[in-house]
Every structure is written in C-alpha cells, then in structure tokens.
Fold Geranylgeranyl diphosphate synthase, type I.
Amino acid sequence: MADALEARDLRARVQNTLDSFRIQEQDVLAPLGEPATALLDAVFSLLQGGKRLRAAFCFWGYLGSGGADGDPVVRAASAMEVFQAAALLHDDVMDASDIRRGQPTAHVALAAQHRRAGWYGDPDRFGEAGAILAGDLCLNWTDQLFATCGMTAQEVARGRVYLDQMRTQLMGGQFLDIVESARSWRALSTQERVESARTVIRFKSAGYTIAQPLMIGAASAGAAESSIAALSDYGYALGEAFQLRDDLLGVFGDPATTGKPAGDDIREGKRTVLVAYLLDAASPSELERFDACLGSPDLTEDDVHWVRKLAISTGAVDRVEDLIDQQAAASAVALERAELTDEARSRLIELITVCTARTA
C-alpha cells in the first residue's frame, strides 16, 4: 500500500503542478532575457523532488476535513512547497550555507555565475542579493498559487487566515534564530537555553513544516474550530519532533544522505536543544573546546568527531531522543481529538513515523 506521501499519486501530481507553474512564470519573466533563467533556476532547483511533507499535510488536512480530491487541493498543497523554497533560500543566506541537498546553495551558485562572467562588483553580495530576491519571489508565488488554486472564494479565505499566520511566524522565528545565534548562552540556565531553542523551533520550523499547512488544508475544507485546534496541537508537537531529529542529523547525519556537510549546524553556531543539553553536562575543559568549535568556519573533521563523542558522552543525544519520543506521543494523543476521515487519520498517523524516524 502506498504511504501517506505517495497515496493518490500526490508526489507526482505536486511535481506536475510545479512544472506547469514554472512554464507559466517563464513567460512572465521572458522580457528579462537570460537573467530570468538564473532566477528561475535558483528557485526551481529546490522544487525538484523531495518528500513533499508540507504538501502532504495540507492535502490530508483538506481531505480529512471533508474536502474533495482534485486539482484545487493539489495546487494549494503545491503552494506549501513553494513557501518552503522561500524559507530555504533566505535561511541559506542568513546561515552562510554553501551546500543544500548536495548542490551549491542559490547564493553560492549565483556568485559563481558572477565570477565566470567577469562582472563588476562583489560576487558574494551579488549572489546574496539574487537569492534574497528569489526567496521574495517564492513568497509572492505562494500567495499566487493559493489564491488561484481553484477552491471557492470562501475556502480560500478560510485557509488564507493560516497562510498569513504562517508567513508572519516564519519571519519572527528566523529573526529569533539569528538573535539566539548572536547572544551568549553562558549566563542562561539549562532550562532557559532549552526553552529558547524550543521557541525557535516552534516559530521557525514546526509551524510552516507541519502545523500550518495542515491547518490551511483543514480550515479551507471547513473544519470545526475544535478540530483545527487539535490538528494545531498535533502539528506543533510533531513539528518539534521533526526539527529535533533534524538537529541530530545536523551533527550526526551522513552528508551523502543529508546533502549537507558533516557537522554543519556546529559550524554555523546553531543554538539547538542538543547544544543546550551538551552545555549542561560538559566539564569546564570540554566547554572551553566546544566554545571554540561552535560557530567556527574552520571546523575540521576531527572537531566534528570530537563534538559527536561529547554529545553522546554527556547524555545530550539521549535527552533529545527522549524529547522526540515525548513530542511524537503528544502528537498522536492530539490527533485523537480531531474530526477526520478514517483515511486521513491513518495517513497522519503514518506521518508521525515518517517525520521522526528519518535519516535525511
């Protein structure tokens, strides 16, 4: 039996929708000439393949709440994937990430194009500016896809409430993330560090990854407020578990699978729950070396190996795994309160495992 991501041929239908949308927007940007190709490539390289989790949550939220399967919900679900592309484009600039899914990030690729062409100015600034514009374009396209998805005006208006919320929360979460990466954690208690990291997760990741696409779908279909509230609880709990798994992969993941360099989160100085727990149990000498590693662009393979051993020996990894299990269980309990079709409930239960037991 097909899983929640493949059922009803969802993944292929989303890709077809995005491919058709590119053709449509190519015509709009055609007067720009060759530069339009670079802009489109920056976006659509991120929209090829992938798990389509955000689309799946929107889709099953809609069908599970009484909506009909068809092109409108697939187009609305596809908008969630374009929104993710916006988040990734901006996030990679802010984190100065070089690699995404095994390929140069958009700002790096655009900077390389600038160098090859021998253009005037700073190639890196050019790349960053281009990637920011590509991300802004994706935010516009998210609205465009959703507004023209083919649902009734009433359905679109109901979903729009949560779409607007999703965009605002993501921007707030992104800003909070850079604040946490800039300020010192040494004066904070472990509880304060964990709470800060979990707040970033809720606003930056859990919302737009699971909770809000699910609520957009459910609200569009006319779900009761009590059911939307239950789906919100499910989504934020599962979204946190998803990101906690991502944080572990950011340190322990295989680059061949994750598509990102080993230890990238340490190199970028991410203040994660894993880091909070590690700081709680490390010795003074271990803290001194870890401080030198966290946020170091010159992080070596030996450094990454040492951080991995420290995360295990301090019990930080086990504590994060326990929190993942707790949040996954909480999501399952919350789902019981939602009014859903049997098929959608089954698919959303499957997605708990998909989101928490993964290697990429």
